[in-house]
């Protein structure tokens, strides 16, 4: 039976201790009783947007098994609230908790487009695909207000520079006009994260994300407009969504996806505590089974930090998941090919933009 004290609309149900901070906060029973007597909310459960400035925005990705070389994140923290999100741990570097703070205290990097342009103007920079959302979703709800991602895409278009996008939000369709222009020169690719076909599972795992129906519609619409789409089933959680691999692959292919990827869930850092608390409250009848199966994929722990293995898992359960994914790809994606982004236009475009607008150049 579900815990009746679950915080609605959130993934994490607790604020765990930040390992970098000496002091911690505790909600005491006497405080809760005081709030009850005064008719006040002990926890208003509101999202706060905090504007910050950054020295740089493009990050070198040193992990050899992530699948990207450079990333940028217009936002830190993510209101989507996905319970399994590996990015939660990075919120601790800013002095916040990886739990509820990650979903409710969103840092806004308003100068991201200017910092990106400065990077692309650099003499030493050579075109390499920069991935939006290597850490947190660039189309999370804050983007509706701030439009930082859209402004960054305008910079990529201006410099004819390749960009990758990872998201689970249908808001990406708002920027279809820019994406189509990028796609004409093969400068953009999109990965849509879809973890389940079940709305019940989606609402539990990812409480503030676009519905499954809207995500597949997004895959279809992007594909119809010439934008290559990869579907990421990330993560696969044994006992929660692992049984959906084949059917999800079928629906993804039917909606135009050109490729399918997945990772095995890993609960690194504070996420192990956050996820364990969450599943015992939301799925108490299967909590032990799921946790034990995750441990079986990581040598008896909830996480494995070894490069090359940490996101693939090992052991019999992980092998079964990989076998199922191989079958899915062979059955539904064997005739599809995902194109590489174009890195050849940027250098000439950068030099063109640097030329002074005098003489005949004023005509252009």
UniProtKB/TrEMBL annotation:
One of its GO terms (molecular function) is iron-sulfur cluster binding. It holds the Pfam family Radical_SAM. PROSITE patterns: RADICAL_SAM. It comes from the Bacteria. Residues 64-310 form the Radical SAM core domain. The keyword Iron applies. SUPFAM superfamilies: Radical SAM enzymes (SSF102114). Keywords: Iron, Iron-sulfur, Lyase, Metal-binding. Signal peptide: none annotated. Gene3D superfamilies: 3.80.30.30. InterPro entries: Elp3/MiaA/NifB-like_rSAM, MJ0683-like, rSAM, rSAM_sf. This is DNA repair photolyase. The lineage of its organism: Bacteria, Pseudomonadati, Bacteroidota, Flavobacteriia, Flavobacteriales.
């Amino acid at each position: 039976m579900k815990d009746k004290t679950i915080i609605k609309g959130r993934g994490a149900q607790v604020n765990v201790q930040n390992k970098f901070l000496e002091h911690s906060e505790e909600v005491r029973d006497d405080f809760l009783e005081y709030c009850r007597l005064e008719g006040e909310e002990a926890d208003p459960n509101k999202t706060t947007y905090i504007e910050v400035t950054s020295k740089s925005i493009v990050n070198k990705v040193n992990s050899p098994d992530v699948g990207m070389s450079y990333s940028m994140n217009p936002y830190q923290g993510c209101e989507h609230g996905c319970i399994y999100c590996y990015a939660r741990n990075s919120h601790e570097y800013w002095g916040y908790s990886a739990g509820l703070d990650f979903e409710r205290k969103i840092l806004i990097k308003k100068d991201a487009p200017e910092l990106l342009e400065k990077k692309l103007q650099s003499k030493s920079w050579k075109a390499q695909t920069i991935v939006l959302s290597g850490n947190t979703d660039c189309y999370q709800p804050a983007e509706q207000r701030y439009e930082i991602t859209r402004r960054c895409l305008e910079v990529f278009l201006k410099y004819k520079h390749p960009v990758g996008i990872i998201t689970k939000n249908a808001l990406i369709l708002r920027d279809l006009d820019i994406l189509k222009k990028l796609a004409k020169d093969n400068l953009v690719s999109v990965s849509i994260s879809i973890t389940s076909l079940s709305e019940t599972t989606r609402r539990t795992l990812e409480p503030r994300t676009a519905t499954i129906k809207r995500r597949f519609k997004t895959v279809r619409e992007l594909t119809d407009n010439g934008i290559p789409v990869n579907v990421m089933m990330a993560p696969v959680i044994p006992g929660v969504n692992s049984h959906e691999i084949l059917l999800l692959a079928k629906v993804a292919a039917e909606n135009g996806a050109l490729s399918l990827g997945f990772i095995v869930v890993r609960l690194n850092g504070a996420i192990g505590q956050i996820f364990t608390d969450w599943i015992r409250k939301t799925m108490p009848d299967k909590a032990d089974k799921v946790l034990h199966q995750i441990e079986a994929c990581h040598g008896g722990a909830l996480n494995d930090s070894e490069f090359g293995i940490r996101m693939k898992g090992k052991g019999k359960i992980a092998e079964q998941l990989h076998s199922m994914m191989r079958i899915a790809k062979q059955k539904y994606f064997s005739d599809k090919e995902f194109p590489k982004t174009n890195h050849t236009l940027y250098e000439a475009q950068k030099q063109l933009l640097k030329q002074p607008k005098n003489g005949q150049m004023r005509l252009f």
